[in-house]
Amino acid sequence: MTHCLFSFTETRNRCYRSAFTGSGLRSTITDLKDGTAMHCWAPKAPIEAKPNLLLIHGLGANALWQWGDFVRRLTPLFNVYVPDLVFFGESYTTRPERSERFQAECVMRVMEAQGVRRVSVVGLSYGGFVAYCMAAMERETVVVEKVVVCGSGVCMEERDVKEGLFPVTDLDEAASILVPQTPNKLKELVGYSFFKPTLFSWLPSCFLHDFIEVRKFFSTLHVSMQDPIIFMFSTLSRRYNPTVHCF
């Protein structure tokens, strides 16, 4: 395997951290007192007149990579909160739960700890399932006002998986693509994720390998990520058959 002389991924991660801190956000860790700790980027000085906005990431190294290009535009308008979901970034748990509802409960508790009482939520990919669960919860402490779900199959049925653009034979094959361990699998994932991934396909394998290795560090800080991801996705297609109301 050819390695790059420097880590483009770590350099990019530092740039994203600078973008977050430069946008008035600070890194926080909330101990939920049950073997779970949640990392979240939160406003250094929340402004009461601004609405609260929660950004929930999907699969990836951490929240920085999926929201780093947006925070500068959003922080002037909102009090922005960007958590790392459990098993991503610096968030972890020793509990056995692996469901998106458990993720939603953890994020809700982080919002409570941050003193947030009303919030709008944007969920991307897997984060969309978490956002959907948060919206379905009835909590007196935190009210979810609005939800935007991006690129999530919350209305997906089992036949959609079999007949869709992501044909896999079992969960192990799905995990090998969703949590790629080789440059070729990473290219395959990008091929599913982007409409025209032409530029990405030309990147040298050393850059892709670098991203995989750095992502492993961010996503396996405390536990192996592969098994939790398999558990997370094993019940999604069976659990969701929601009624969606559009206004």
From TrEMBL:
Q: Which PANTHER family match?
A: ALPHA_BETA-HYDROLASES SUPERFAMILY PROTEIN, SI:DKEY-122A22.2
Q: Which Gene3D superfamilies match?
A: alpha/beta hydrolase (3.40.50.1820)
Q: What is this protein called?
A: AB hydrolase-1 domain-containing protein
The source's superkingdom equals: Eukaryota
Segments forming domain AB hydrolase-1: 51-172
Q: Which SUPFAM superfamilies match?
A: alpha/beta-Hydrolases
